[in-house]
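Below is a filled-in request sheet from our internal design queue. Each sheet records the structural input a requester submitted and the sequence that came back. We keep these sheets so that new team members can see what a complete request looks like end to end.

REQUESTER: design group, bay 2
PRIORITY: normal
MODE: inverse folding
CHAIN LENGTH: 136
BACKBONE (tokenized):
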């Protein structure tokens, strides 16, 4: 078990998935601690500090928040039409089956992707495309 896996197990009581562990092992230093306001190498994905801290916050705010979910990033915002306000939308990874869920700052969740690998592939492709086109 590497340092990331030990930290998540000790702090959050979850065993992180192999895919997520590999991402952190290779890219944690290039990921943002605040993915909404400062983009890291992969837009929207936070580093381990973000994941641990934000998951702890969600758990304290929403007692029914699934214990096997970890908030790994930010998807952006959505508008609540009835009140005309924007709220943040986060990305949660279910560590038991690698499914991705979107969770708003009011605790409402919905499925984002069937598997973390599929969701991450899209994010990586976008990051590489932006990196290549910004250099021209």
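RETURNED SEQUENCE:
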């Amino acid at each position: 078990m590497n340092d990331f896996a030990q930290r998540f197990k000790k702090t959050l009581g979850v065993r992180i998935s192999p895919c997520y562990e590999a991402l952190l092992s290779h890219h944690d230093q290039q990921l943002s601690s605040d993915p909404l306001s400062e983009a890291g190498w992969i837009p929207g994905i936070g580093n381990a500090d973000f994941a641990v801290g934000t998951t702890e916050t969600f758990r304290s705010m929403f007692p029914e928040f699934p214990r096997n979910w970890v908030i790994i990033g930010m998807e952006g915002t959505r508008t609540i039409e009835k009140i005309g306000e924007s709220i943040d939308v986060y990305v949660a990874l279910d560590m038991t089956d690698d499914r991705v869920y979107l969770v708003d700052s009011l605790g409402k969740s919905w499925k984002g992707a069937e598997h973390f690998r599929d969701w991450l592939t899209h994010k990586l492709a976008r990051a590489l495309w932006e990196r290549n086109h910004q250099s021209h």
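SHEET NOTES:
- The chain has a mean pLDDT of 90.
- The chain has four helices and four strands.
FILED BY: M.R.
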